[in-house]
Amino acid sequence: MVENPRSACESVGCRRDLALLAILFALVIPLRVGLFFNTEVPARDCIGYVRYALQFEEKPWKEVVAGNHQHPGYPLSVWAVSMPVRALVGGVDPDTMRVSAQIASGIAAILLLLPMYFLGKALFDRSIAFWGTLLFQYLPTSGHHLSDGISEALFLLLLTTALLWGVLAMRSRSPWRFALCGLFGGLAYLTRPEGALMLPAVGLVLAACQMIAPWRVSMGRFLACGASLTVAAALIVAVYVATTGRLSNKPVANDILGSKFGVRDQPAAYEHAPRLQGHVFASVFGAFFEKTDAFWLRLGRSLRALFSELSQAFHYVGGVLAILGLWWSWDRLRGLPEFWPIAAYLLIHSAILVALAMVAFYVSDRHVMPLVQCGCYFVAAAARELPRRLLGRCGVRDMTPSLNPWWRDAGVWSLVVMLALVGIALPKTLQRLHGNRGGNLAAGKWLAEHLVEGDYVDDDHAWSHYYAGMVFKEGKDRPLPKGFTPTNYVVVTRAREGRSDQIRLETEQKVLILGPVVYHWPANQDVERATVIVVAAPRDMKKHPWHVAP
């Protein structure tokens, strides 16, 4: 019996996909495991997610979701992962919940390999899909975020899956594929509000294709596809909107959308968050700029901030290659209807980031991750095309492979370029996660040994408050004995952060008046040279009333 040539080709292609995916898993899993064990402290946002996750066990879910700024997708995953982790170690503590959050992110980051590879293959080919997927995992900024206790890994997994189904749906105009796109877009929205941007991007492209003869489908098919996308997404989005009464609880999102979609108050669940009076001093990964009322000046600074964060996230050299790859791929991609949902999403996402910057006067490196993720395909495309063009300009012509020396083979040089990009990024990617926060961790551990019932930790960076165990005691204090005066431990991190350093010094001087320094880090240096200090002062019950049981 003669084998069907098409079936044979599909079988070979499937084996190649499996082989490349196996290599990706083999290269990425050790990176994720290494960064997991090479973590000093998690991101500060991780503490908020842990607090959010534990509330699912303490309050009605509707109250929890409505009372928090963040969308519930990632906190739910942290809570789900923490249950077997806590059962294994036998309790709730800072390390257990940090591990749970990072495991949730790590699983999502590894699963991200699948939709990202097949998305790259759908738009380009296996080679670009492989290298683009690998590069994104190994870039310093994205590599760290995917291993941290924050929502990026889960969000990108759901968003990329929605993008993949959007591409496949536009190619086949299959209603059920549009439904899957809407479903995963809605789930991405439950993780981060910008996940909803995928839905108008696909819908607008679907409608626009009806005006282009070669891409047009029957009105019945068009309506079926649009309805499938909308209904699937609406079923997910409606759950959150019905629970909270607004499209998003995030203050900045409401600033952009306007008060029509919700007031800009602070959810009650954040009443326990530790904070000093005045400014908060922390290492924030983002581009900040001065506030101004001049529209065009704000716009220019916002665009510059976005460009700065993209350049850093691409590790600088990769950003140049991404532009070249887009330029060289444009003529082919623009003729593909399945490319335009990706392009529309990236344009809408970029516009939202500029609007965010004009309202909040900053752009975070976390915000640009979807742009970097898609841009990695163009980096890989440029890495393959650049050697061909350079060799062509040098007059080197292709020869029979057996007669062609390696140094005249464009494929070899493409491999060298990609390995060089990964190699250049690797030292920074492998750096200890938040390795400059060892003092905050040490102060938290010291406080955990010295706190008594009724004491409070007022922390300008939140890590010491977290590792002292205060997050797990919020709202659970017992009545204090009559006449007993608890202690308020104030933790100050002496971070050198440019223009804010003078404000920090002024705040520290006010703190030192409250009481003596009882701990400093490093312990083998003088207090004046310490990077973290802990000041003990009588606790002000009016300032921290929520820690006294009624």
Give a written overview of the molecule.
- With 550 residues, the protein is mainly alpha-helical.
- The protein has two domains: 5-429, no CATH class; 435-547, no CATH class.
- Helix content is 60%, strand content 5%.
- It is built from 21 helices and six strands.
- It has helices at residues 5-37, 44-55, 61-66, 73-89, 94-111, 113-123, 126-138, 140-145, 152-172, 175-191, 198-209, 219-244, 251-257, 295-313, 317-333, 340-360, 369-393, 410-429, 438-450, 463-467, 501-512, and strands at 286-288, 362-364, 456-459, 487-493, 517-521, 532-538.
- β3 (456-459), α20 (463-467) and β4 (487-493) form a beta-alpha-beta unit.
- α6 crosses α7.
- The longest helix has 33 residues, at 5-37.
- The radius of gyration is 26 Å and the shape is globular.
- Residues 259-284 and 545-550 have low confidence and may be disordered.
In short:
This protein is mainly α and 550 residues long.
Backbone shape: globular
Gap between N and C termini: 83 Å
Order of strands side by side in the largest beta sheet?
Answer: 3-4-6-5
Percent range for β-strand residues: 5-15%
Q: How large, in whole angstroms, is the Cα Rg? A: 26 Å
Question: What's the multimeric state?
Answer: single chain
Count every beta strand, where a strand is a DSSP E run of 2 or more residues.
6
- Low-pLDDT stretches are 259-284, 545-550
Helix fraction?
55-70%
Largest sheet: 4 strands, mixed
Average predicted local confidence, pLDDT: 86
The helix-strand sequence is HHHHHHHHHHHHHEHHHEHHHEHEHEE
Total domain count: 2
Q: What structural class do helix, strand and pairing data support?
A: mainly alpha
- Number of distinct helices: 21
